[in-house]
Amino acid sequence: MSAADTRMTPLGRDRTPPGAGAAANAAKGLSIVVPLYNEAASLERMHARLVDVAQQLKAERALACELVYVDDGSRDDTLAIARGLPATAIDVQLVSLSRNFGKEAALLAGLEHARRGAVLFIDGDGQHPPDMIETLVGHWLDDDCDVVYTAKATRTGESLRRRLLVKGFYTLINWGAQPKIPPDAGDFRLLSPRAANALRQMPERNRFFKGLSSWIGFRQKRIDYEPAQRVDGKSTWNIRRLIGLSIDGVTAFSVAPLRLATVLGMVLALIAFMYGLQIVYETLVYGTKVPGYPSLFVGVMVLGGVQLIMIGVVGEYIGKILEEIKGRPVYFVAEHDVKLAQETRQEAQQETQQETQDTQPAEPVAPSTRTAAE
What we know:
This protein is an alpha/beta fold. It is 47% helix and 15% strand. The protein has helices at residues 22-26, 43-61, 78-83, 103-113, 133-141, 160-173, 193-200, 209-215, 239-253, 256-285, 293-326, 342-359, and strands at 7-9, 12-14, 30-36, 65-71, 91-97, 118-121, 147-152, 185-191, 220-225, 333-339. Helix 10 (256-285) runs antiparallel to helix 11. The longest helix has 34 residues, at 293-326. The two termini are 56 Å apart.
């Protein structure tokens, strides 16, 4: 391979030749990662739909697939149902975490246990349509895209409060950020083999998957879609959890709150300076008495409240620094099971037999003997 065929990235050497064919990419396979948390009601139906999609990809594109289910400490029968999912037509992995570590940890666990080249993430509640997997795969194989992500086309079905909170979140996190995190993007996305390897090299523990997927760069493509209505089960994403995830994302990818604190401090200082000049002017020119207790009380309360808010903002960043310094694992695995499909088992047996034959020493050839008559 010539020097022109290898490209250097900040994360290491990428030996994937530019413009690699669809067949070469498809040969690396696809791992479909499904994080689960209390999805017992919809898991079997979701599994059947994913198996159908995987079989179609195998038939049309010769793309070998596997399913990686990550149970994030579910409290219902999700784990028991996942143990019984059949692997008749596709390899199935089950990764059960020791407790509920959160969706970001479940996504990382699926990424690190994926055995194929490309990795696709899809929620287990059925709101991410499995039929779109073929579209994502098509952009990866045909258009040579490394990150194919989906985003909500509209938010008309959501409340005004939620829409305002989402808009404010993306405005805050993208304030001065490079690169920008695409608004309304979700975790339903496909990573090419080199994009997945790049994401595995990210060492931080305070992870924000959407931001990390954008930060690694490479060729990215957005696909707008309308999420399906949830048929089974109940969503566990309430306002409190969404706000917590937003705070984690902002502190992981933006210093906008700290900059906002600086700007707010400068504005308050300027207001106080101008107010002080007004008091001096009115006292010297008009002989007006300096306002007493009420104005002083209001000023102290305003400044005290702002200071406490800014201390809390700084405390959030210090807390994240503490987590990184501790170096604790992002998750622990309580159970890991791999079920191989019949075709995969046969291929593994053939490879083992071939390796055994290749390693066996050749039989010595006996030297020929010549008789006196010869």
